[in-house]
Amino acid sequence: MRNETLKLSILVGVVVGTLCSVTTARAAEPDWKAVEQALGKRGELQAGDVFRIGMPRTDLSVTVKGVPVKAGFALGSYAAFKQMGDQAMVMGDLVLLDQEIPAVMSGLFSGGLEVTAVHNHLNEMSPRVMYMHYEGHGDAVRLASALRHALSVSATPLGGPLPPPATGAPTIDTKQIEQALGRSGRDLGAGVFQVTVPRAETITENGMPLLPAMGVVTVLNFQAVPGDKAAITGDFVLTDKEVDPVARTLRQHGIDVTAIHNHGLLDMPRLFYMHFWAVDVPAKLAQGLKAALDQTNSQR
Hints:
Radius of gyration: 22 Å
Strand order of the largest sheet: 1-2-5-6-9-7
Low-confidence stretches: 5-16, 18-26
């Protein structure tokens, strides 16, 4: 009897081990190279195992209040993939001309993706540019293929390398910016400098964490302009009680608030995104942004 019990225990162990192996295999990371091939752009694995692919609108020549803006400064479409169990989640933002919006939206819907927001980020843009936020769940390669199909009706550059950065562009004193903000940033090239600031609390959707690399992060972009000045744009990620204090603070420092809206639908806590614009001395702009950050529950 004891031998039979031992045999049964071994058999159960083998079965459980096999099931665990199957489960592990199903939850394995997707083939990110295949995702890149499906979408037509290279990506990068970022913090939290988020695979992010940038699709900047380098085909567009856009000005804001007469200031030419770089693609990495204000025209950055992207897709952020995160494997969650046996399926992937993708979310991101698409930079589109007015006439591109209807067909791209229909393409996203036909590919099984959801549109969560369509809105402006900045004012007095020429040509006018809008931003479409989207989300999808399923196989990562299938999601990438569906996204590429939707974007095929736009002029978003896909399937080729990025153009080389422009030479002779104005430079920016990044040390002054970092000192004023009390945070480090990164050089995006072409005179564009970026500082990102995560929220302090955990952000979730249907119980799953939404990570900074997925776009749930305050972004402060600086672009050098002639005359030793900089243009700034980006967005603050805010809870409802922070919206008014941050807007008031930005205006007190001469920074325009250009949009306030949602990006997602089921985020917890409920988040709002505040976009901004100003042109001035970089250190002065950074001081205003720092004062606004102080009104938020951001990581220190």
